[in-house]
Known about the structure:
Blueprint (H helix, E strand, L loop, with lengths): L5 H10 L1 H9 L18 H7 L2 E4 L13 H5 L2 H10 L3 E3 L4 E3 L1 E3 L2 E3 L8 E6 L6 H13 L3 E6 L8 H7 L11 E4 L16 E3 L2 H9 L22 E4 L2 E2 L5 E7 L17 H15 L3 E7 L20 H16 L3 E5 L4 H8 L5 E3 L4 H10 L3 H12 L7 E4 L6 E2 L13 E4 L2 E4 H16 L8 E3 L3 E3 L2 H8 L10 H19 L4 E5 H5 L52 H4 L6 H14 L6 E4 L8 E7 L6 E7 L5 E6 L6 E5 L4 E6 L4 E6 L4 E6 L7
Parallel strand pairs: 1-2, 1-22, 2-7, 7-13, 13-14, 14-15, 15-16, 16-22
Antiparallel strand pairs: 3-6, 4-5, 8-12, 9-10, 10-12, 11-12, 17-21, 18-19, 20-21, 23-24, 24-25, 25-30, 26-29, 27-28, 27-30
Amino acid sequence: MSTPDDTYLQWLVSQSMLYNARQRARLYAGQARLWQRPYAQARPRDASAIASVWFTAYPAAIITREGGSVLQAMGDERLWSALSELGVQGIHNGPTKRSGGLRGREYTPTIDGNFDRISLSIDPGLGAEEEMLQLSRMAAAHNAVVIDDIIPAHTGKGPDFRLAEMAYEDYPGLYHMVEIREEDWELLPEVPEGRDSVNLLPGVVDRLKDKHYIVGQLQRVIFFEPGVKETDWSATAPVAGADGKVRRWVYLHYFKEGQPSLNWLDPTFAAQQLIIGDALHAIDVTGARVLRLDANGFLGVERRAEGTAWSEGHPLSVTGNQLLAGAIRKAGGFSFQELNLTIDDIAAMSHGGADLSYDFITRPAYHHALLTGDTEFLRLMMREVHAFGIDPASLIHALQNHDELTLELVHFWTLHAYDQYHYHGQTLPGGILREHIREEMYERLTGEHAPYNLKFVTNGVACTTASVITAALGIRDLDAIGPAEIEQIQRLHVLLVMFNAMQPGVFALSGWDLVGALPLAPEQVEHLMRDGDTRWIHRGAYDLADLDPEAETSAEGLPKARALYGSLASQLQNPGSFACQLKRILSVRRAYDIAASRQVAIPDVQAPGLLVMVHELPADKGVQITALNFSAEPISETICLPGVAPGPVVDIINERVEGDLSEDCQMTLNLDPYEGLALRVVSTALVM
């Protein structure tokens, strides 16, 4: 095994994210620019004010013009005309930077949909930097902003990781990686032919902890898969270092083996340099106004004398996010976190951290309401948001995204497993409540009832919004869906739009939602699911603007999903389409500035399927009430709204009077199955 030559080492350095981030940082030294904006506190309402309706793209699923690039397609005038007509104010590109790994000088493909970043440069498979700039200009021309990604918790196995393996300068300080002395290599398994690392079994991790190498097993194994990933630690094959010494390393990866975790408290502070440099590059070079902090809750890990390591809810994650989010605000941007942890963690990391948080709190709960026709768990979770001091206006209320429908319900698994919750007339510990909800959802959403949806390891279910709805409607065979079924599916989809859009904060929806995508058959993406990653079934290709109606795959090779509603461009020509109903809802949302409203009540109700949300509108526009029927039965119920001044009640979507709120605060709601109403009490203020 020979020592790497200096020419190769210098090439690796020139390609590394750390080197390029350091070069970028020098542009800001001694300049006044970073002192012109407030940065210490999160500003969620300022962030949503610049864009409160987001289209969340997924580059690998984009169908392009023949011979065109993904970025060209995302910046297409026809697409933006349709998005603008719909009411979209921001496009979340999804990760577009080069990702994957590196062997020698050969780049290897991404293993996690471009969430294994290895460069600050645009992925050449998606397009060129000039096309990214054109996308930013096209968005701006339609009064919208670009939303980009940074990944504070890990990278791929690119130049930075290869330099770390070679013990080159301070690159090992980037990662949670530990050199294992040669006399202890007997503890490590052999690396199979054709691979560069191997996952460690729990017993090996325990022995390495006993020998004071690593912190040991973590609180949970994300993406657990027997024989693939049984712990969060892997060992490298022997690697020749820049100094000629051959080493084996053990490194941490919260996610897949090809996503080594960054070390946010190494004395080199290399991780902070890399990630903040990446953020500044996204703002100043690619034109992003908002940045997603992906997997930002996993920045701290600490050994404990007994049990598993402290790896979730760690104070270093809070501190790291405050540094990163503050730097983004200083540079003129905003950030949001995609943080599937406890509500405590989401609240703590929002204090001085990311401006907005993805709503992992109510997302599984509103799906539970749809599947069961019962909103009690949803109301419980919405009230927990308020109990922990989280402003719903700081949340991103979303339909489908690129990940699974997570059913981890982490809040009830860790800190609150023994807290007591009132549910269905019983008092249950959080852990028991969690298992009950998970069992109900798995039963209704997978298996015999819905064989087209697949479990995703222990995290949740791979499904589209449309296939959640088909499961709720009892449709087992997707091939049997005809016009009548599509109309019913669309009705439930609109109900879910109303739940998410008629709340303060950001509303986000995906291309899969816009076309009504169904899951792919597993055999279509079998080659992508060999490591147990079933999420590929819900990432089918789509063509929003009819750029290539005959295409059968995306530019990245994903098979085209069956689209129940058709393209966005074609739907906007049909007044009864899903897109046109969505357009009407979003125009009302904008007219009454519901994104900036204040959620004041989630009232108790009698009908199991009924959910009522009460919002105080800004600028003395009165009180807005959203009433939703999540069940297949009609509802007629009189509710009491204490503290709301009486007056006429107007349906603000259909522009008709629906009755009155009486002097004794009584209002009668009449809803058909799966119907939603957006109402406004025409009074000037709350009287409480």
